[in-house]
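Quick note —
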Amino acid sequence: MKSSRPHRVILGIDPGTTGMGYALLDAATDPATVVDCGLVPVPADASAADRLLAIAEALDALIAEHAPSAIALERLYFNKNVRTAMRVAEARGVALLCAARAHLVVAEYTPQEVKLSVTGTGSADKKQVQKMLALVLALAEPITQDNVADAVAIALTHAQRERFRDAVALAQ
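Predicted structure written out below.
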């Protein structure tokens, strides 16, 4: 028997070429449920091109397996280390390409927007975000891997924004 609840899986991405976090969050449940999360496996000794290919293949596989309705990712923000910023931008580009090929809704959030959404303050540290994720999502234990917790937080931010948008639409 097929469930009558809507399909609202969100793929959250914390971009990077050495530790891209991902999270699949079912936003149709209350609280939202983490379906899957982890780090995209990228060979440490691979060339930049091979790392990006590994990211694309992993994201394509996650999208094919879980059929998310949207992808939410961290918006690139100013970084003093230009080399790091370039690598993150490349990884974001791959994620955006994968989303476009799958015709997914794309949402982008700054780190401050994510922290504000999850903790109530845009200046929260990573530990505060991890603690709040455990509370809001009723997790048995906090997600302590930074990139993974960030991906969950990004997906949750999008779920909360969608829920608010839907409530406003109903009220009008």
